[in-house]
Each structure stands twice: as structure tokens, then as C-alpha cells.
Fold this sequence. Notes:
Helix content: 10-25%
Strand order of the largest sheet: 1-2
Order of helices and strands: HEE
Mean pLDDT: 92
Number of helices: 1
Structural class: alpha+beta
Shape: elongated
Largest sheet: 2 strands, antiparallel
Distance between the termini: 29 Å
Low-confidence stretches: none
Strand content: 15-25%
Amino acid sequence: MEHIYLPERTENIWKKCAEEFENRWGFPNCIGSVDGKHVTIKRPNNSGSNYWCYLHKYSIVLMAKI
Length: 66
């Protein structure tokens, strides 16, 4: 198995990334975005309040990055 290397990020690459993000989504000076979603679950055994959230239910949070 070979190693996979990501290209070094230069200033030009970041500028291109920001330009593409603005063209697609209409947000200037951004290189990405993050969002989250609470997904309701049944309380796991012996979990106490670990999965209890401010929405007054048991949930886990799914996060996504664009």
C-alpha cells in the first residue's frame, strides 16, 4: 500500500478555493461551511445524561462540512 499525500496548500490554492465557493454559494471570503443536525435516538443503556440535549430529548449530532 502506498502513502497518499495531499498537495501543499499555497496562497493561490486558498484564493481559488474561496473564489469557487463564492461562485457556487454566493458567500465571499469563505473556503467552506459546517452545519449540524440533531438526530433523535433511544437512550442507550447506562448512558445517564450523556445523550440528553437542550431540545429535551436524547440525540446525537451529525456534522457535515462543504
